[in-house]
Amino acid sequence: MADRRTGSFGQHEAMSPVDRLGTWWGRAxxxxxxxxxxxxxxxxxxCGYEATLGRSIAAExxxxxxxxxxLSDELDSLPNTEAVRGRLPDALEGLPEGGFDVVVLSSxxxxxxxxRATLERCHALLAPGGVLFVNVPSWxxxxxxxxxxxRLGLSPPEEMNDHRRYxxxxxxWPKLVAAGFVPEHIACRRHKLGLNTWATARRPASPA
Length: 208
Prior knowledge:
Number of helices: 6
Order of helices and strands: HEHEEEHEHHHEE
Shape: globular
Radius of gyration: 16 Å
Distance between the termini: 46 Å
Strand content: 15-25%
Helix content: 25-40%
């Protein structure tokens, strides 16, 4: 399937109230599942044009890498931050293997033609003891998201039309295993009233 995107989320129009609520909820889930980000090397992949999460954590992390098709020029001036512009997963090739303590994929995988290649690259980017956090819409969420976008006009229809797939835990878990993560170190659950699926996948720490 040809990639239809010509820009990043939030580039061409302001976030809707539904989008803002979802972003806040996802950010809260990240902190609950991953813990403090202070002093950690973080990569936010598919971060959105304004990189809302990145703006909120740049001052506390050791280093922040933001990746998306297009990024606001303002992000280049954030402290401790590198902005990488490009299409996933190709844009990840220049990032250092084992260079990150936390990798974030929030509301991203559902838009990609090749979700497996992206997850495999995330596995390679993580340092020993590092953790990948994934947040994706579920099949139940598909109903709510499309109703909001197509019937109520509360979300951008083009974002829903760009979705390639949806994920319940039984869909996401095997993709994480195929990407190289070990079942013992994967947690995968529904959240947001069942509208989304989250997962954490950790690389084991190096033996002492």
